[in-house]
Each structure stands twice: as C-alpha cells, then as structure tokens.
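QA checklist item 7 of 12: single-chain prediction sanity check.
[x] sequence parsed
[x] length recorded as 357
[x] structure emitted
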Amino acid sequence: MPTSTDTLAEARRLRDLFAAKGAQVIKADVLQSAETLLDLYGEDIRARAYLTSDPLRGEMVLRPDFTVPVVQMHMEARADPARYTYSGKVFRKQETDETRANEFVQVGYEVFDGANPAGADAEVFAAIAQGLAGLPVRAATGDIGVLMAAVRGLQTTDDRKAALMRHIWRPQRFRALLKRFGSAAVTPARAALLAADDPFAQAGPEIGLRTRVEVQARIDALRADAAAPPIATEEIAVIDAILGLRETAPNVLSALRDMAVDMPAIGDAVATMNARLEALSKHGVDVASLEFEGSYGRTSLEYYDGFVFGFYAIDRPDQPPVASGGRYDALTARLGQGRAVPAVGGVIRPDLAVGLR
C-alpha cells in the first residue's frame, strides 16, 4: 500500500517529466464555482461532486477534476499554442463502490494546439505512456468523434439527433432513444394525448414549475416527432456496429472504412483516426497491438468529443484506470464563449502507479 509520501514523490516526478516537455506548471483552486459545472452537466453532477454553499461566492464545489479550471485559465490567457501540467487532489463521490477513494491526487498534461490535432493526441498519449513506463499496464483507446459523426449523419430530424447527442454519455438512455426513433410505434397513452384536440380539457390547475405554455411546447414537439419517419434500420445497424467494435486499432480502422461506404458522414472522423495512428507510430507506440473499443469513454465526464484513452493495471481489473484522457474541443468553445481551441489532455493517478511498482 503506497504511503502519502510515496504518492507525493511520484506526483512530483510526473509533473517534472511533463514540465520538461515544455508544459507550464499551474495550480487551480480546490473550491470551484458550481455554476459552471451545473451549466455543463446539469443536476447529474450533484451525484458525483461535493457541493457546498458560500455566503459570498454562492454554491461551490470541491474540484472533481482539473480540466474545467485549466480550460478556463487558458481561454482567459489566450495563449496559443500552450501546454500545462499540474498536480493536486480531486474529489469524487463514490456511491456504488466503497473501496474506491473519494479523494486522490491527479497529475495532468494538457495540450492546446490546433496546428496538428492528430499529432497532439499522439503527443499526450505518448507522454502519459512514458510516465507509466515499466509498469504492468495495458492501454485502451476509443474515439467518441466517430460515434458523434454517425449521429450527425443520420437521416432524421435535428431534434432527434440533438437528443441522441445529449445522451451519448448515458449508454442505456442512448440505446432506448435509438430504439424509439427507429420504430413507428407509439404507446397508447401518448397516442391519446397527441390525438386530443385540447389536451388540457381535463386538466386541473397548474401545479409545479412548468407553465401551460411549456407543456404545450412539449406536446407540439412530441407531435412533430410522431410524424417523423423512423430512422432507417440500416443506419441503426451502422451505429450498432460502431459501438460493438472491439479489436486492435488497425483492424478497427479497416472496419470503419467499410462502414463509411454506407455512412459517408463518418469519413472525416475515420481519416482523423488514421492520421492519429500514424502519429502514434512516430512516437514509438506499438499501434498494431493497440486496443480500440467503439463504446470506450462513454461513461466519463461529459466533455470528451474525440480521441479517448485509458491505462489499466493488467493484474488488477477491479481498480479504476491508472491514467486516462482524451480530446475535448467542444468544452473550450463552451467555456470560451464561442471561441474554440483544439485541446487534448491526460491524467495519471500517482497512488495507483506507485502501487504497481
């Protein structure tokens, strides 16, 4: 069992390693404004983060990770390109697993550089792999950008595509929506509601937070959705095939190229993956044996929108990842008030790394 002294020594080693690659060492406040996180992730974040109230600063949160404050710092500084490293504790609720720590140290490496996104992806992955060199770990990778491109390419309404995009990080809800949008069937209760000339005829007084106008807008949206044709079975099959991919990266790339014939919308994402694999190879990564999973990264915090990866202890499948990371371009646009900067980063848990030595 690693001691706190061992963990802090490993954290310093990793931070110094990343700083030697040109990363600026930065710090972030432990207490962060909850407003930003609630705006990004909605009320779901309350189940994962520790929130408190400050009489002057309002609702605050113990930082659940470093990415959001680092992006905020970068967007305010307007430096481009830029590299950052940091070390410190993060705090996460663990409601379903008492064995997992609810506070632990993270050391990170973040790259903001739009000149060569595929090269930046490879740089971060290789830097994290170097930090873990010699440890018995395996790497897993994925690309949420491929799935997003497939959703955007569906021949269906914008509202349906927006709903699917919102729930990409909730696999069960995403699957339920895809099944519903692929069927023309409507439940009897919903059919009766949509067929009514005046759905409020038997309604009582307004109760709760939703107004009659908001309820009517929702009914109108349901009517529009019911009138839309179902998503084609062939398109759903492509998405199922993407989510079911689990092979070495070169084999997945070959399969995705075949899928792009039936769904050209994923063509650019597939080309990006090809460029990334070439860049990884130049960094000395054994691409031929690199694992790729089509559904990887969909249960992480909801800002990854491209390349995702994790490193896992080979003999400890019960442990959380020793390291993880990915691309989060869309987050920079959200926090930069529309100004986006391509960004990718990764973090290592030094306590878990020390435990494997």
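[x] summary fact logged: The first strand starts at residue 24 and ends at 25.
[ ] second reviewer sign-off
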